[in-house]
Amino acid sequence: MKLQFVEAGEIVTTHGVRGEVKVLCWLDDPEMLCEFDRCRIGGKEYTMEQVRVQKTCNLVKLQGIDTMEAAQLMRGKVIELYREDIDDEVIFAAELAGVEVYAEGVCIGKIADVLDYPGNAVYVVKGQHGYMIPAVSQFVLSTDMEANRMEVKLIEGMRTDEN
Hints:
This protein is mainly β. It has 2 helices and 12 strands; from the N terminus they run E-E-E-E-E-H-E-H-E-E-E-E-E-E. A 6-stranded antiparallel barrel has the order 1-2-5-4-3-6. Strands 10-9-8-7-12-11 form a 6-stranded mixed beta sheet. A hairpin with a 2-residue loop joins strand 7 and strand 8. The longest helix is centred in the middle third of the chain and has 5 residues. The radius of gyration is 19 Å and the shape is elongated.
């Protein structure tokens, strides 16, 4: 299911005296946040005047947040991006929850969780049996978010309750 907003990170502290905030980015790469010019924080839309990467975080200057005191009030808040601003080809783990998974035309269950491992993500599928399916093109044949459907190729060892 496509979300209206996607959580992109958390404001962890302030930076400087002109209202910049430091964001711990939850996207695959902090560079991705630099591509956007608006966000939502606490239900309110903000224009991101400047976004730059600092190591594994982002420094963000929000329009209307011009002092260190104002920035301090933003600590601990989550930055959300508008899904409509993100390429439709990009699918987020949170959107995969509940997607029906099919192998050879038969529904084997729904995605219950997405585990993030260094090599690749793994989809945890729950149905009559449990499955752990690596999120790679060798096993994930297609994903249709509009139809809430994913086609996969199963191999021995993916079923978690096998002997």
